[in-house]
């Protein structure tokens, strides 16, 4: 093989691999999900299949022009992404293995071996990561075992688990040395990394989330964390495309109860479980006393007595999340007076019905809320605002058409101006929202310019579910 042919083949496989590893990173390195559950499969044709077919069928000297076009197209496409490749140690190891294998293709004079290098790298990389992960997981479990008298709280739900975690942390932090997982870390890989890297050794309580895409994900987390305390929040049809049925989702969430050390579990009514020894269903007789842009007042039964609470956060659905937090705080020894005092200073959860005032505009940042009930709650809250109402949304992601139709009709009822981001639900939203209200934002990098030109002082602006543009 001459240097020119080798360079062309090397760069082609490198470019194809870059596209592939980016997509794998988006979908938690699950090749099956990249192939079967990708939200924009046309990208696979444009940036992987088409250049691959051209490379296989054309001589290097003819394909070289197509390769230049392909690399430029990848560069321009990447510039428009809001979630680009993060060069983690895993990604760097992938490219090191690939480069090493590609160097040897110089002696083979074969495109087949160059392409085989990519697939061998996928297998070798996956095997390497599994072996490293087993070691990291063992180290993390040893670290947990070495923290004396550590109490572990594990939280799962179809939606609201990050809010529950943050609420619980705020209430417990003044009474216990408490640590919570950062951001929305909720996979076994994320938890293992968090324990090894950031978990302090002098804590009393570790609060962790447990998320899932397939059956067994939460069981794996339960076996690893082995929590003494469990909260299973509201269960709905979030991620229904992966689980296929609501019953599968319920069974997966209930895997958190498989921990051998569970002392007390608080489970939402949607689990279909009953009160038993060690399991308490919540909330009992929940009443929303007031829910508006100033905060939330609610009551529910605790030991057969009605207790009232107030928190300066938005969304009546948060009463469900807070009731679980209150019950667990009581279980850990706090008094109702201590809990009520902490609730009054409860900070808003970022990007979850977070109220922001800027430039005379009222902004409700609900961009991390992607469930049907939560979005409808936000719409109802905005409905009572005396002023022009604007929404920026892609609709529901990982849901069904029926739910998106209901979402669209509610948007049409409540909002005066609708900015639709992404193409995922564009057809449904446009069909069910008045055309004179709709603006389609194809390039999210221009959102700030659109808002500056299309909104004014006195407007309410709701960011509802900000999905990355690969979705």
Summarize the structure.
With 471 residues, this protein is of the alpha/beta class. It has helices at residues 3-26, 31-36, 42-57, 60-80, 89-104, 111-146, 161-172, 188-197, 217-225, 240-243, 246-253, 318-331, 336-343, 372-383, 401-414, 426-432, 447-454, and strands at residues 151-156, 178-180, 205-209, 229-232, 264-268, 279-282, 287-292, 295-302, 305-311, 354-358, 361-366, 389-393, 417-421, 438-441, 460-464.
Describe it for me?
This protein is α/β, with parallel strands linked by helices and 471 residues long. The chain contains 17 helices and 15 strands. A six-stranded parallel beta sheet has the order 2-3-1-4-5-6, sandwiched between helices. A six-stranded mixed beta sheet has the order 10-11-15-12-13-14, covered by helices on one side. A three-stranded antiparallel beta sheet has the order 7-8-9, with helices on one face. The chain is globular, with a radius of gyration of 25 Å. Its EC number is 6.3.2.10. GO terms for molecular function: UDP-N-acetylmuramoyl-tripeptide-D-alanyl-D-alanine ligase activity. Residues 155-329 form the Mur ligase central domain.
């Amino acid at each position: 093989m001459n240097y020119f042919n080798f360079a062309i083949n090397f760069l082609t496989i490198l470019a194809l691999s870059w596209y592939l590893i980016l997509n794998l990173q988006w979908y938690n390195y699950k090749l099956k999900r990249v192939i079967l559950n990708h939200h924009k499969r046309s990208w696979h044709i444009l940036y992987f299949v088409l250049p691959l077919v051209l490379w296989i069928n054309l001589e290097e000297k003819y394909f070289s022009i197509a390769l230049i076009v392909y690399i430029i197209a990848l560069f321009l496409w990447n510039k428009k992404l809001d979630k680009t490749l993060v060069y983690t140690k895993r990604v760097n190891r992938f490219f090191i293995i690939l480069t090493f294998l590609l160097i040897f293709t110089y002696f083979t004079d074969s495109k087949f071996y160059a392409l085989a290098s990519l697939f061998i790298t996928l297998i070798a990389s996956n095997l390497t990561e599994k072996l490293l992960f087993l070691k990291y997981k063992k180290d993390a479990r040893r670290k947990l075992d070495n923290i004396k008298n550590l109490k572990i709280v594990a939280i799962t739900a179809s939606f609201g688990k990050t809010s529950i975690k943050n609420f619980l942390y705020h209430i417990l932090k003044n009474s216990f040395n408490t640590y919570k997982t950062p951001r929305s870390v909720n996979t076994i890989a994320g938890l293992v990394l968090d324990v090894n890297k950031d978990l302090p050794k002098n804590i009393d309580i570790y609060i962790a989330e447990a998320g899932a895409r397939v059956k067994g994900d939460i069981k794996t987390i339960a076996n690893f964390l082995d929590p003494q305390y469990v909260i299973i929040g509201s269960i709905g049809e979030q991620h229904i495309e992966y689980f296929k049925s609501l019953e599968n989702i319920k069974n997966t969430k209930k895997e958190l109860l498989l921990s051998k050390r569970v002392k007390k579990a608080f489970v939402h009514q949607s689990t279909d479980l009953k009160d038993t020894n060690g399991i308490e269903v919540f909330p009992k007789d929940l009443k929303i006393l007031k829910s508006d842009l100033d905060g939330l007042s609610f009551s529910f039964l605790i030991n057969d007595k009605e207790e009232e609470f107030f928190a300066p956060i938005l969304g009546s659905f948060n009463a469900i999340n807070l009731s679980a937090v209150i019950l667990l705080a009581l279980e850990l020894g706090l008094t109702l007076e201590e809990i009520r005092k902490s609730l009054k200073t409860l900070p808003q959860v970022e990007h979850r019905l977070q109220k922001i005032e800027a430039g005379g505009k009222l902004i409700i940042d609900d961009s991390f809320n992607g469930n049907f009930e939560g979005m409808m709650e936000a719409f109802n809250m905005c409905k009572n605002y005396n002023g022009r109402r604007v929404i920026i949304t892609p609709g529901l992601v990982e849901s069904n058409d029926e739910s998106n139709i209901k979402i669209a009709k509610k948007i049409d009822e409540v909002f005066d101006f609708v900015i639709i981001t992404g193409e995922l639900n564009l057809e449904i939203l446009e069909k069910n929202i008045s055309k004179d209200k709709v603006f389609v934002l194809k390039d999210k990098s221009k959102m700030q310019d659109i808002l500056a030109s299309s909104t004014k002082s006195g407007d309410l602006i709701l960011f509802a579910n900000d999905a990355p543009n690969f979705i």
